[in-house]
Amino acid sequence: MAHYKAADSKREQFRRYLEKSGVLDTLTKVLVALYEEPEKPNSALDFLKHHLGAATPENPEIELLRLELAEMKEKYEAIVEENKKLKAKVN
Fold it and tell me: From the record, what ranges are coiled-coil (predicted)?
């Protein structure tokens, strides 16, 4: 039983190490990006390698631009929907 607790303790230490170093967050982001891909790549492993290989510390400006892009996409979709409604109303 003592051996089981020692292994569990090492596992927990390793998990905390991965969490503190940002590995878990990075892996989560890459896996979410793969999940959200509209057209899944032929090789998920190549997708992960590409995105992990390109992983660099995020520039705050890049993150702001990504947020702005997401907002603009939402606004665009709302305008397209409004346009459809107005065209239907005119006809």
Answer: 62-89
